[in-house]
Fold:
Amino acid sequence: MTAPRCDTTEAWAALQGHFEAHGREFDLREAFARDPGRFGAFSVEAPEVFADLSKNLVDTATMHFLLDLARECDLEPRRDAMFAGESINATEGRPVLHTALRAPRGAGPHGDDVHGVLDALLSYAESVRDTASSGFTDIVNIGIGGSDLGPQMVVPALDAFCHRGLNFHFVSNVDGHDITPVLRRLRPQTTLFIIASKTFTTQETMANAMAARAWFDDQGGTDRSKHFVGVTTNLKAAADFGITRTFGFWDWVGGRYSLWSAIGLPIAIAIGAENFRALLAGAHAMDRHFAEAPLKQNLPVLLGLIDVWYRNFHGFTSRSVAPYHQGLKRLPAYLQQLEMESNGKRVDMAGAALPFATSPVVWGEPGTNGQHAYFQMLHQGTDVIPVEFIAVKRPAHDLPELHTKLLANCLAQSQALMLGKGADAALAEAAPTASASFDKAVLAQHRTFPGNRPSTTLVLDELTPRSLGSLVAMYEHRVFTSGALWGINSFDQWGVELGKALCSQLLPRLSSGDTSGLDASTAGLLERLTA
Ligand code: F6P
Structure:
């Protein structure tokens, strides 16, 4: 499908005019003063996720032009093509069907395959969870990128739902400092290794899998077929490795979209079959919302449109994610792969270099920790960085006084970013740590906050399998939206290939010390590391 690229549309030109006339100087404080209904007008209710978009640098006209842009770029037909299983990942000649993984039986493509594997996977997960019979105490997932980040993000997020007799470990890095401390604490008799790799060729995963297998044998482990399980599309490679129990998936599941597939095995073991199905159901509810809600009430669409507005008109280069829930501590890392591997592209589908920017840098830490690290820059730095707050109404612990403080902090930060503080207000305040001899007017400049810094706040009632499923699917579809407007292929990742190829060429040189033909810097570093 060839659809117009965003910069060739009338809406794009209209947005440029609108930005010059009203966007560049837009002031949130004035917008709220002008419109007492702004919160209601710019908040959206989607399955399990409420979003306050009102603290973004947009007005009704901005959203009107952005929605025109979505229509002119054929966002809806493109979205429908994805759900229908068309080969929208054209450079790899593949459909993109992670949505089929969470469609109820009979409701999505490849239903027999999907539900056949899902049933077997969940039945196996339950057998592992029966620790009296399985004997397992420790589950080690060995995988990287999409074969690691999803389970590594979800398992702690759903700690309240996790099996209390099982410990989960995630080994990804080819750095031996990753697996060594994990193995040191384990016994082969009680450990299950999950070797998770879509391709079953990834250097890091294969190296760690071999290290785990050698450790298992050295420590007197017996019955490898019980203690090693594979999750892959490459069943033959898993069999060649000596794995007899394998759960498959398909090439139409992208690595960074794969936590819903057999790659979710650690999650299923942690939270059990019923909760895993709830995770899928939450994602499916968001799929239906994305597929059916009118564009102007469609949360992933609205978020993707605001992303384009910020990246291409305001020129903001990054977005910070601040989950005010410690369980979501790995969400920023998960979103980095999801968004930056998907939309970090510089050519359009036709291979033409893009004259506009694509993926922002996505980064963050849980609140309130980030407040004591880099929020200084968010409030007073020279760059404007939109922040995405995630608040959860009801905690899973019974320390309500802590939760109230957490929520107050979350609200205070978005308020402070927006309101700022003028020099007059700063001058009128006492500053306990200020030098008594320092000029007070100058000090007030240091203590001024420009404000008008945008944020989005997402609110979940509770962090449950269902709400987490919806939240993650919302992010997937938001990435789809901005990628579709930019006219790029959000589903390939050629940018990871060059480094892999050069690594293979350098590997023997680290043993031989041969630097012939290398650039001077690489040669010098190699000598330094091998001498
Ligand atoms: O880093 C590139 C990448 O291909 C990711 O897209 C993928 O999630 C990761 O490597 C792991 O790949 P595999 O699951 O095949 O081991």
Notes: The longest strand covers residues 387-394. Residues 365 and 373 are 9 Å apart (CA to CA). The chain has 22 helices and eleven strands. The two ends are 55 Å apart (CA to CA).
